[in-house]
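Record now logged for everyone:
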Amino acid sequence: MSAKVTNISKEIKNPRVRMAPSPTGYFHIGSARTALFNYLVAKKYNGKFILRIEDTDKERSKPEYEADILDSLKWLGLLWDEGVEIDGPYGPYRQSERLDIYEKYLQLLIDKGLAYYCFCSPEELEAKKEDMMSRGEVPRYDGHCSNLSQDEIKKKLKNKTPFVIRLKMPEKIMTVYDLIRGKVDFDTKLIGDFIIAKNFQSPLYNFSVVIDDHEMQITHVIRGEEHLSNTPKQIAIYEALGWTPPIFAHLPLILNPDRSKMSKRFGDVALKDFRKKGYLPEAIVNFLVYLGWHPKEKAGEPINEILTLNEIIEQFDFFRIQKGGAVFNIEKLNWINTEHIKRMPIDELTSHAMPYLREKFGETLLNDIEFVKKIVELHRTRIKTLAELPEMASYFFVLPNYDVELLYWQNINKEQLLANLDFIYNLLLNLDERLFTRQQLEALIMPEAEKRGRGGMLWPLRVALSGQKNSAGPFEIMEIIGKNESLNRLIIAIKKLQDNTNN
């Protein structure tokens, strides 16, 4: 009895969904979005999120890629309920550990006459393809080996003739009811008998994914639109085995700014590259959910685009996913990231910032966590990504090195600058360290700055403290680095001016 694909209800209850990446490269931003939508479906509709690793491509699969997948999902906060690293009733969860299961079903299909050995050589297949194309036909396998007798098959197997295993594809119009795209028809005559395994120990994607999804009781297959063309092949396998297919849902493509399919041509696409650039996981999740989905607008209420993962789950409605492609807008990502940086609790933000600071300054300069927190807090409104922080805040950790010319403000001469810095130095020297706060420092220095000229006093002070044209304000810097270090940096600036003979 074959399974029949019928129309589906727009209702999701207790789903079992999966993320099944192949460890053949670093975790892609598109895969991250797919994982996110599967995770949201599981959490919103009281279901389970399963992680399976499809590593049957022995040549391209590598342990470091699998490690990157697991680490990326954990970093995003998309923790799975069952799968790799977590015991579950339907394991193992790596395809390389399930080869005996695939072999069983391959043999079953052959025994039933629904699949067969194909001994055609690559040269023969290429010749058939060219012949069909010359006649204006869509290239497909002509089914030659499906007509071999049992004796012929036994003889070729005994002689160890190389073979693949093909599924007999019934010729019909196959209708798929996609949860996002609606009714989709496929003419299976254009597909032909397709390969499901290179041999009994080397199943191909379309076959192994069906076996795994069935055995793991997956109810909804949510994946990118690029997999839509695989769906009729997979349904044919379900039908051959007499199984009911899961419900399919194909997410819209992620597009480059020119509306082409997202690719490396427009920059990095691996999630690790976005991590390296200093994007927060909360911001990546927030951004990715908007690539194809938006929350329902409430009358009289402005849309809050900055959402935590828990807030996304609360507002999530699967049936608001759009069909059309979603443009990857880096400016939008940058804005979302800055907003999350501004709003994140300081302890959490500092924890995220520490790896970037460690990479530049090592561990010894970061022992005082309260000191680091103050620096992060000071710069959270000044940075787009955490990767900008080490350079922007470098003067807090190492003595700034700058050219004396930077101390000069417009047409103010050396003598005036020296007088201004001397005044500030003596003012600070006599200030009780307990009063060394931004408010107190500003109250002491600003009245004199108003008399002498703000630029002529505050510019060289800020440069003396930071060594930068653009930095935090001098009072904020002095409060963080303290009295002794502030005085030390003023001394260095004064000496630079004194030694400068050009002005």
